[in-house]
Amino acid sequence: MISTKNLSLSDVPREWIYEHYLTLSEQLVGQDLKIKSIFNSAEKTASMCIYTDSAGVYRYKDFSSGYGGDALDLVQKLHNLPSRGSAAVKVINDFDDYTKENHYTPVIKVNIPSRYKITDYEMRHWNNLDQVYWMSYKIGSGVLEKYNVVPLSFYTLSKEDENGVLNTITIKNNFIYGYFKDDGSLYKVYQPKVKDNKFIKVKDYIQGTEQLTFTKKYLVITSSLKDLMAFNKLQLDAESIAPDSENSIISGSIMKEISSKYVSVCVLFDNDEPGIKAAERYKEIYGFNYVILDKEKDLSDTIQKIGVNKTRELLIPLLKQAL
């Protein structure tokens, strides 16, 4: 299991606070909302605004009662608490209780201008949010450590302008993970809760190659490192690798060297149109058969939805046919 610390307020997505305590019918992903006042049950016309300020932080203003402020101000007023500190304690405890029974998936908007490159990052300890996220796919600390996945507290992007001035952007959120090679070099940043820019590529790397043992009969090419790690949980007579993305084809020289060490190779990509087209390209170029697991969008989502055993039952006949 992933080791955890006690939750702190920084572990709680601010969007969740509004969604939970106001029982919103939609997730907050940067849009403004107007609802009926939570403080005035007699109100007939919506006058309570949920909006983002200039820093992109959600705030509220209730014109019916005159109350306004940030998420902690809302909880303090809503529950008649004596201080912001007591509101913070309530939020932490309520979120902890919520995540024991629910899987919360916030959507974070991160806009990264072109030509910026990652120049700095900071590793951090695993926390409860990380545990809830990865264990929902049955991916535990042993697999994460094997594939060099490390949580990050932030990363910095830099670019020199035409005058030689260095411009930097620092992104700090929950759910930021660095993907590292065995030598400790960062090759990708993964942000699963971000709507755009989920992956930021740092350097070319065929994921999973350093972990291959060549002791199993078959090789399965998956669409992502997360699917690759989830594939490990199926405990089949097969190892797996993943290209940078479904849209990138592993070079012929590398593919020839790796595939020669296995009885057979097949492809297991996402079951949407881009995934199927990418799998077809591997079949055209290398002659590899491909598997369409017609359940959830990809393998890890399927495991998250129906579990390891049922996923294995669905996948084994397909793999036998393809390999």
Structure description:
The protein is an alpha+beta fold. The protein has 3 domains: 9-101, DNA Primase, Chain A (Alpha-Beta Complex), CATH 3.90.580; 117-201, no CATH class; 209-322, Dna Topoisomerase Vi A Subunit, Chain: A, domain 2. The protein has 10 helices and 14 strands. It has helices at residues 14-21, 71-78, 84-101, 128-135, 141-146, 225-232, 252-259, 273-286, 299-306, 308-322; strands at 33-35, 48-52, 58-62, 68-69, 117-123, 149-160, 166-171, 177-180, 186-190, 199-201, 218-222, 238-241, 264-268, 289-291. Strands 5, 6, 7, 8, 9 and 10 form a 6-stranded antiparallel β-sheet that branches. A 4-stranded antiparallel β-sheet has the order 1-2-3-4, covered by helices on one side. A 4-stranded parallel β-sheet has the order 12-11-13-14, sandwiched between helices. It is elongated, with a radius of gyration of 23 Å. 28% of the residues are buried. Mean pLDDT is 88; it is low at 1-5.
Shape: elongated
**What is the number of independent domains?**
3
Give the CATH level 1 class of the largest domain.
Answer: Alpha Beta
CATH-scheme architecture of the largest domain: 3-Layer(aba) Sandwich
What's the pLDDT, averaged over the residues?
88
Query: In oligomeric terms, what are we looking at?
Result: single chain
Q: Any low-confidence stretches, pLDDT <50, length ≥5?
A: 1-5
Biggest β-sheet: count, sense, barrel? Answer: 6 strands, antiparallel
DSSP summary: helix tally: 10
Number of DSSP strand runs: 14
Q: Class by helix and strand content?
A: alpha+beta
Order of helices and strands: HEEEEHHEHHEEEEEEHEHEHEHH
